[in-house]
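Checklist before submission:
- one chain only
- standard amino acids only
- sequence pasted in full

Submission:
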Amino acid sequence: MGSPTDEPQPQASTSQQGSSNGAPAGPPAAGQAGPRKAMKEMTKAERRAIQEAQRAAKAKEREEKQPAKKGGQEGAKKKDAPAAGSSRNAEGGSGSRKQQTGQNSQQTAQTTSTNDSTLPGHHYAQTSAAGATASPLSMFLHLDPPKSAKSLNAKIHKEQIHPSILRLALQYADFRIVGANARCIAMLEAFKEVISSYIVPPGKSLTRHLPSHLSPQITHLVQARPMAISMGNAIRYLKWEISHIPPDMQDDDARELLCERIDHFIRDRIVLAGKVVEDLALSKIKDDDVILTFGRSSLVEGVLLAAKEHGKRFSVIIVDSRPMHEGKNLLRALLAADVPCTYVLLSSIGSVLSNVSLTLLGAAAMLSNGAMFSRAGSATVAMMSKGAGVPVVCCCETYKFSDRIMLDSIVGNELASTAGLLPSSVEADKNQNLGVLNFLYDVTRPEDITAVITETAIVPVLSVPFVLREHKPINLGE
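Returned file contents:
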C-alpha cells in the first residue's frame, strides 16, 4: 500500500509529458488532484485558459517557421526564450506584423491615389494620406472624356482625312450637330463627298481599297465623339454595298452607284421611316390629351407638329434637364406652332404626372433585350410614368435597332462636357477634391415601355429581336 502522498505523482508526470508534446494540459480545478477533467466539466475560465495556451503555442510555431526579415536576430532570440514567455512573444510578433502590413497597405493606397488621381477632362476626389480607398469615380475610367477642338487637331493627319470629315468632326466635338438622325445624315453626306473625290490607286480595285480609305475617316469621327449605334448601322450598310459592287464595273459608275445607295438609305430608312412613324403615332393622340416628353427628339417633335396640323387639340409637358437644356429647342418649335406647353425640370416631374395621359419618348437605339438607349433622364421619366399608370410609347426607326444587350448605362456610355453643371464660383479645374461627371445616355428597362412605334408597326418591346432580324440595314440592298 502506497502512502497518500504518492497518488498525485502520475498526474504530474502526465502533465509534463503533455507539455513536452505541445498540447497544454490546462489548470486543474481547485481542491482536486485527480486526472484532468473533460471539457464539458470545466468552467468557462478553465476552457479559456486552455485556448489561450493553444494559441500561444501555435503562434510560437509560426514564428519559428517564418521569422521576420528585419528582425532575424530578434526572431532567433525569441526561439530560445523560455516557454513561460511564449505567449507574450507571440503577441508581440503578431503586433509587429500587423503594423508592417498596415504600413504596406497605406503605401499602396497612396500609390493608387497618385496614379488614379486624375482622369483626362475630369477631376477625381483626392484621398487623404490616411485613406486606403481610391476615388469612386475610378470605375468610369473606361469611358472616353469629351474632346475639344484643340485636342482633336493635335491628333489628325490632314493628308489622310478629307476636308468634309475634318469639318464634321469639329462640329461633333462642339455639339453643334446632335441627335441620332442628324449625326447619321451628316456623316453619310460627308461620305458621299469622300467617295465622289476618291481615286482608285493604280493596280487596286475599288471594292478592296475603298474600305481601307474610309477607315481613317471613320476613326477621326470616333476621335471627335463616340459613334452612335445608328451611325454604326449606316456604316455597316455602306460597307455591305461596297462589297457587292460588280468587279467589272467602271470606277465612275461605282462611285455614282454608292452615292445613289447612300441617298436611298437616307430617304428610305430615315426620312420616310420618320413620316410613317408620325402617321402611326397620330392614332395614339386623342383630343384633350396631355402629352409628356423629355428633352428633344426630332421624331417626337415631328409627331407633335403633325398632330397639330391634323387639328388635334392637346397640350404638351416638356421635361428638361441640365446642362444641355435640349427641351428649350422643342419648346420654341411647339410654341411657334401654337401648341400649349408646360416646361418643367426633371426634378419636378412628380408634380405633373397626375395630369398626364400619354408619355412620348425618342430613342437613340432599341436594344435586343427590349431596353431603350436614350438621353440621360429618359429612364427616370419612363419609370415614374409607368408607376403612375401612364402609358409610355417610344418612337424609333428600325435602322436604330441593335443586337446589343445592355443591363445598365455604366459599361457603355458617353461623357459630355461638364460646363454649366457647377456655379461659376466653383472651379472644378483647380479643386482636387471635386469629381464631376456628365453622362449623355441611360438605359430604360423593358418593363417601363408600353410599346414601340416603328415604320413597320406598333410593336411591344419583346418583339424588338424579331423586327431586328427582319429589318437589318443590310437587307435593304438585297
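Reviewer check: The chain has a mean pLDDT of 78.
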